[in-house]
């Protein structure tokens, strides 16, 4: 093979065993020399550090999990790409966009927000309508039987209907759409942090979610509609943001502006807010929930659009409820959206009421953290049959309890106690709040209804640790601002108390489900490491004009999603980093098979062969696979010019950059790949790539177990409490 | 001079004319060669690009303004440093910090938030108390005279007292504390974006602000308390965050944790929220105002702390008002905090009410943007006498109008019309809202009070363009959630309409005052440039072990605040970038005069001579000056080891990085300096430094006037409308 070919990136022999050893790094290309052997004149310290770098970093690969528990099933996960990809093809597209394009883009953005709002409101309305009709019918039949004295039959009807409904929900989620199980909020939170799983926002998930939600809530289980509605809102937003379906010819050229992860993230954030707004008719609370609980990135422009979305939800819901007032919706409105009964009272409170309120806050914090603890320890077991059994047992127990309660608690002033529960955001109802409230409230001059509100606020604060949004949701539910200071006090106390024990319920679930969630703050031990201490190999790089066979081999043998592109002499004075090319874009190139016979720069501008939307990001979970493309032997020997398709502005850090500051960059800018540059100019122009997985504590502490032995151990194990307080 | 000395960074001869020509770049050090001449074998394209780079970039210096209008005076401005400075001294300090330190830090953080809340509430209370007593006394005297039929005397008293009060406020702000003039919100917004001006948060400013606010509001001028209270809250937060005063021995060792710009930024954000909370007794609205209107960086942890602060404001205000109910506060509570009178009504509205509401929104948008336009064009004139004259004319006119109004508008049902105005956030009262509301409302079935609320919302939305926070403030003021959808609708319409004309009032003022405000979005033309197209020279760099005389010369002849530190052979294999050292840290080093006789690595660890708090960031506006330090001739010939004091993890970009993406990094991470690395390894290890000024449109378009000629011109001139819609 001619030396010229060699320099063009014929990256060594294809490994017959198909391992993921790096041909480029170990033997192939001329510039990727072993950094430990590259120079003899450095001092001992530098050499020692380089050796350690080689041993600790490059020789190991990152073993953190590439799958996560989505709903009840295990899914492969993928990182999202919020970075602006600046390659020649996209740049030409941007230059071609005039004022009209921008106007269209803006108009579409608002139109999509409008649609998300309207559809989320409709979904919330359907869910409410379904629940009230199904549960109402069940209640009417049971009551009539009880009034007729036929308690046995009534219990049987109650039990069987509950059992059937629960089983329907469980079977749907276990066998049809596993991603629809659970509240869905951890999945939405992970998505907005940059972790995608194929099924979380599919149409199937959406339908099963709504039907399952109706069945589960109607079955008298203590589950709320809020979580499912957040997931539903996010689903609607994500489906609208896919840019239509080219399969069913339901697309339009304009929608291609939204075929990127940034715009989809914004839409899904608005969708999550719309879900809460639909669940509680609380538009401001919905915006704040999206901001406080689920989003990882926020801009004040997003505040405005989320507000518009939730305003649409409120308007549409109001119109639909007005429509239903004329008895067109069956039993809807008979049970009604259950509100607290403190609206009409003028509430007064004094300093003497503070001790019981503070007690309530502390109790709420303790109970909320206990709730999180048990959920963390008990709920997650493997196996579909186990889940069915669990659901069956829970529904029978709940039915018995509910049916028996009026007898047991007949001494209480109001036998329909549990019916008054707040439509809880979490799983356990805020019923406990009312019970606790009643117990304590009996010693106070305060209103019982107010105490129920405060009790539920305390529990929500203790479990979910959201202060501002829960506060606003409660205000919007009760329409009473005079108790604002008390609600705030209770929320702050319960959150503080609960934070001393464990993290909030969503963070626990996100961790438990194995999502590689990028925290917003930096762990203390990250300040002790540099990026070269965690970057793992083997690094796979391509030349600017690369042999097709080598690209195919690398794509087949690794799972990497981004590859540095390096220009070597004679195309540059010395080996220089040209940029970063994405796997998805390489696959588009390979599928087109627009190859060049030799490795000289192509006369034709290859980018002319492609339209920008050839490279548009497909919808969630859809992507090309290298195995689906066939190549002839001649094609494998040809070359492809990667320059026009390479992102020429990847974000970079020098290898001596502290891990903490690289984490700040990675998280704040919302990256998928971060290139690591060498400190010395004599080395290869790029020494590694950092991804989200490289910032995971399990990976870092696996590479550097000595960090456990130092004082950081203490800080780390006190982490959940500390980091919640500190950051 | 020995070659060894040369390599140690004796950066050329000191320029006898004291110009700011770069000795390092042009003649001195061995590696800073002219990039245009460094290699002969590159292709023509590369050489042409480099020459352009040299011509367009490095040879010019950034001429954007280094001063801004603060209040009514001109001040030098300085960038804030939100980056984590990781040098050896600070690292040792972090390693020494255990669990106790973290606990103390957390406790202090919350204690400071508590204090900010309490003091802001007290300041708001004092302002209200002052206004109600002064204005009340004036009103009582005038009314009594009018009841006695002595209209002439009454008018004279009214006019003279208003004139005296206005002049008091004007003289105080013009001659005593110019930084206290105006609403203060633009200054707070600029500070939270990273621009500091020495006087904005001083104790003098705080006192003048409160007194001036009382005088101005009492003088019947149409000014609100909200802006001043936001500035007051920010002042209190900033003063508390200075870490005490070492001059008056009012400091404590613990407070040193807060001697950095990050923690101060968080505190000032909470303080701004506390100001709004104190002005309107609207805790949730205060948090949202801080989030939506003034802050440039936000984390959900900050949401919680800001909420705690505003909750404290609400609690303290309530306690103080309770205290005043027993007639201990003079006239306080007689006029009362003026609220809208819609609380008690149960408001119903139907589809037929939509057209007038929409009209109101559109009108509010048009009037709001007109208000911004006139404020932009008319208000800012130079000269102290002009300001005094303006104030005098305005107060006389206002007094005449107010006194005459009840006669002119006597046909209206309520002659005290203007007295009912909402305590406006902006300058013009929401009175117009009520007037417009009455005109339109007469054709509607809606409540007049409701229409007044909607009218003021429309104007605020049109002028300030804040939707969520104005909405929540209005809700908290009126304690009525049923009209939420209407308020939202009006706000969204008026904001959209007004955005089509110009930017919001605070952004206009920030620009007008000359603050180098970093926008949250990227201008389209930034995508067409790389960082090398805007980076300006001359670059000043130091060697790891540098001659004192050279450092002193560079510090005296340039105003740069950060300098790259480069290690050269024999200290490294090749010239490598070691990090970035700050001017402030260099001054601490030079003041200590712990120099070494020659340029070999010092045996003693120089960092041992310093405590971390020697390098703590001093309070706003306080900093060392090189002119204050005297050096002997021998000292100037000695050396200093910069390594332990150099930030070894500065953020970097490669010179080919697109300007748009560098802007994203700079803004999201909150940087002060961004180092530009060369693409080719044959060049000097650093080619420039980007600061906030390099991202200003006037600088970029000054360097690249051809951008005006392209299609981007169109987009740029439509910018105010577009960017507000797009982002």
UniProtKB/TrEMBL annotation, chains A, B:
Instruction: Tell me if Plastid is a UniProt keyword of this record.
Output: no
The record's Gene3D superfamilies line, in alphabetical order, gives: CBS-domain, Clc chloride channel
Please tell me where this protein is predominantly located: membrane
The segments labelled Disordered in the record are 1-45
Q: Name one GO molecular function term.
A: voltage-gated chloride channel activity
Coiled-coil annotated spans: none
Q: What are the record keywords, sorted?
A: CBS domain, Chloride, Chloride channel, Ion channel, Ion transport, Membrane, Repeat, Transmembrane, Transmembrane helix, Transport, Voltage-gated channel
Where in or outside the cell is it found?
Membrane
Respond yes or no to whether keyword Metal-binding is given for this record: no
Lineage, top-rank taxon, reads: Eukaryota
Q: Which SUPFAM superfamilies match?
A: CBS-domain pair, Clc chloride channel
Q: Which family does it belong to?
A: Belongs to the chloride channel (TC 2.A.49) family.
What name does the UniProt record give this protein?
Chloride channel protein
| Lineage per the UniProt record | Eukaryota, Viridiplantae, Streptophyta, Embryophyta, Tracheophyta
